[in-house]
Write a structure and sequence with these properties.
The chain is α+β, with helices and mostly antiparallel strands. The chain has one domain. Helix content is about 35%, strand content about 20%. It has 4 helices and 5 strands, in the order βββαααββα. It has a 5-stranded antiparallel sheet with strand order 1-2-3-5-4, covered by helices on one side. A hairpin with a 3-residue loop joins strand 1 and strand 2. Helix 3 packs across helix 4. The chain is globular and about 40 Å long. The chain starts with a strand and ends with a helix. The relative contact order is 0.23. The structure holds zinc ion (ZN).
Amino acid sequence: MIPNYTSALMTVETKVKEDHAKVCVKMHSSHFRTHSLPHTSHILSTTLPSVLESKCFNEKKQPFHEEVKATAVGHLLEHIILAYMCESKLADGHTEACFNGFTEWDWSKSMRGTYDVIINMSKEDISHLKYAMTKSILLTEKILCSN
Ligand SMILES: [Zn+2]
């Protein structure tokens, strides 16, 4: 089980299913998108540079290092989680690690500032998810506090 997290900035609930994990994020911060967080790229480049190289399938077909300048905070968190999961798996001695996921939100149905981040993974990867969630929340909050 992944413990739920709540702070003044956000609430994060993680549910692990058979072939994916669903991370429900509720932003309490007023920053819903990274365009109001101009230090995002710099913080990522010093703390988790691999995330800037990650593949991203977005509408504008931009590389993630461009997309990250103006994207939903939920989508940023998704990429951070995936990068930390890879880091954890590689540190475990695997020669390759690749995780993928997507982020969805519909604020006509759920509260403004809520995101569902879906991480495709098997239950064998839960230790990597656990590692990634702690680190990802810390890094996202560092970015949210940087403005
Ligand atoms: Zn993406």
